[in-house]
From TrEMBL:
<dbReference type="InterPro" id="IPR000847">
    <property type="entry name" value="LysR_HTH_N"/>
</dbReference>
<dbReference type="GO" id="GO:0003700">
    <property type="term" value="F:DNA-binding transcription factor activity"/>
</dbReference>
<dbReference type="InterPro" id="IPR036388">
    <property type="entry name" value="WH-like_DNA-bd_sf"/>
</dbReference>
<dbReference type="GO" id="GO:0003677">
    <property type="term" value="F:DNA binding"/>
</dbReference>
<feature type="domain" description="HTH lysR-type">
    <location>
        <begin position="16"/>
        <end position="63"/>
    </location>
</feature>
<dbReference type="InterPro" id="IPR036390">
    <property type="entry name" value="WH_DNA-bd_sf"/>
</dbReference>
<keyword id="KW-0804">Transcription</keyword>
<dbReference type="InterPro" id="IPR005119">
    <property type="entry name" value="LysR_subst-bd"/>
</dbReference>
<dbReference type="Pfam" id="PF03466">
    <property type="entry name" value="LysR_substrate"/>
</dbReference>
<keyword id="KW-0805">Transcription regulation</keyword>
<comment type="similarity">
    <text>Belongs to the LysR transcriptional regulatory family.</text>
</comment>
<dbReference type="InterPro" id="IPR058163">
    <property type="entry name" value="LysR-type_TF_proteobact-type"/>
</dbReference>
<protein>
    <submittedName>
        <fullName>HTH-type transcriptional regulator DmlR</fullName>
    </submittedName>
</protein>
<keyword id="KW-0238">DNA-binding</keyword>
<dbReference type="Pfam" id="PF00126">
    <property type="entry name" value="HTH_1"/>
</dbReference>
Length: 303
């Protein structure tokens, strides 16, 4: 298929459909009719030789072939936009809509108190913040960036580590009065441990402890499996079992006596916070601005 202006225009239409999530919204954003959007996508599909979008009355989603194509062309389209902006002296302009995928624990505990400052700094930007239990597919879901705890999955996404923080093992005083206090990591096998699923992979997180250079993996179990950090915190405070949290998230509760830190002589797993985005080449200014802002929050939470 010859690469000419019409092909680029059709690719631009496909990008608008993916980012907006519907033909109607893409048409509104591009200033053309919905039927014009449909024809442009149809011409692109005919040229490529495969169906790129699955269309229903309620939703539009990329096919597997469409996802692979979009993952390859999206960095190029973004790069063209950035190159044009740079040539026009507007490479630092932060505007438009920024769709961000985060987990609820990070959003409420770290991000939410600072959002007003971010929006004041970038008045031409609309922030679409979605809290999701799982990472999902950033490309097909139309997200510009995700900020998540845990090791990123193997994928074409670009990952940038923003934070590495220690974990603590805790329980409510009511649970410890009833079931006793574990003295070593091995004792956890006899306790109800609240199991957390990774928001990156959906798998149950392992419990590892280190002391004097030796790492021990503990086979924990419990009747409660969760994907949401706030639900886990509420359950732990209510005496449902022993849990592990990022130290920064429960320090105040430990000082107040609402939670008790366990196994203080052992070093638990560390939690890494990553920014994930689809394009390695010239990420959009709005994506860079958000990453820089989150980094500044982590460096100085009170700032």
């Amino acid at each position: 298929m010859a690469l000419d202006g019409r092909v680029l225009a059709n690719i631009g239409v496909l990008t608008a459909v993916v980012e907006s999530g519907s033909f109607a919204r893409a048409a509104e954003a591009l200033g053309i009719t919905a039927s014009g959007v449909s024809r442009a996508v149809g011409r692109l599909e005919a040229g490529v030789g495969v169906r790129l979008l699955d269309r229903t009355t309620r939703a539009v989603a990329l096919t597997d072939e469409g996802r692979r194509l979009y993952e390859q062309i999206n960095p190029l389209v973004a790069g063209i936009g950035e190159a044009i902006a740079t040539a026009g002296g507007a490479s630092a302009a932060v505007k438009g809509r920024l769709r961000v995928n985060v987990d609820a624990f990070f959003a409420r505990l770290i991000l939410a108190p600072h959002l007003a400052r971010f929006l004041e700094r970038h008045p031409d930007l609309t922030l679409d913040l979605a809290t999701r239990e799982q990472l999902g597919d950033l490309v097909s879901d139309g997200f510009d960036i995700a900020v998540r705890f845990g090791e990123p999955p193997s994928s074409s996404l670009v990952s940038r580590k923003l934070l590495d923080t220690r974990s603590v093992t805790v329980a409510a005083p009511s649970y410890l009065r009833k079931h006793g206090v574990p003295a070593t990591p091995a004792d956890l096998a006899r306790h109800a441990c609240i199991q957390m699923r990774s928001t990156m992979t959906g798998q149950l997180l392992e419990w590892n402890y280190r002391k004097k250079g030796r790492t021990t993996r503990v086979e924990t179990s419990g009747p409660l499996h969760l994907t949401d950090g706030w639900t886990m915190l509420g359950a732990c405070l209510g005496g449902a079992g022993i849990a592990r949290f990022k130290a920064s998230g429960v320090q105040d509760l430990i000082r107040q006596g609402k939670l008790v830190e366990l196994l203080p002589d052992y070093i638990g797993d560390r939690y890494a916070l990553y920014a994930l985005y689809p394009s390695r080449h010239l990420p959009a200014a709005k994506v860079r601005a958000f990453i820089d802002f989150v980094s500044s929050i982590l460096d100085d939470p009170a700032g």
